Amino acid sequence: MDVIRLMEEAIEEERRAHEKYKQGAEAAADPETRSLFEQLARMEENHERMLRDRLSALKLIKGDR
Amino acid sequence: MPGTEGRLAAVHFYYLLKGDVEELHKLWSALTGSAPRPAAAEPGFLEEGNAGEGYGGCRVVHRVESGDAGVCLIDLPDLAVIEVSYPAGDGSPEEVWRAASGAIEAVRTRLLEQVSGVFGETTMLVAPAVAAGNEKLNVGIEQPAAAAATAAENMRAAAGYAGPVLSANLIPGTIPDAAAAGPLLLAHFPGQSRGGRDYYAVAADDPAAFIDNVFPVMDSLIKKLVRTASYFEQQRQTIASERSEVDREVGSLLHRQVVGSAAAASMPEAAGASADSGAASLESQINALSRMFGMLATDSLLIRQSTESMAGDIKLLQGEFARMGKQGGNAIGDHYLNRFNDDLAEAKAEAEKLEFARRNAQAAIEVVRTQVEILRAGEEAVIQQQSQEILSRSLVLQKERLALQVAAGFIEFVLIFYYVLKSWEGIAGAGTFDHISRLVRFIVVGGFSASAAMGTHYLAQVLQRDSLKSRGLWISVAVLVLSAAAMVMLTVAYE
Question: Can you give the pTM of this predicted structure?
Answer without folding.
Answer: 0.65
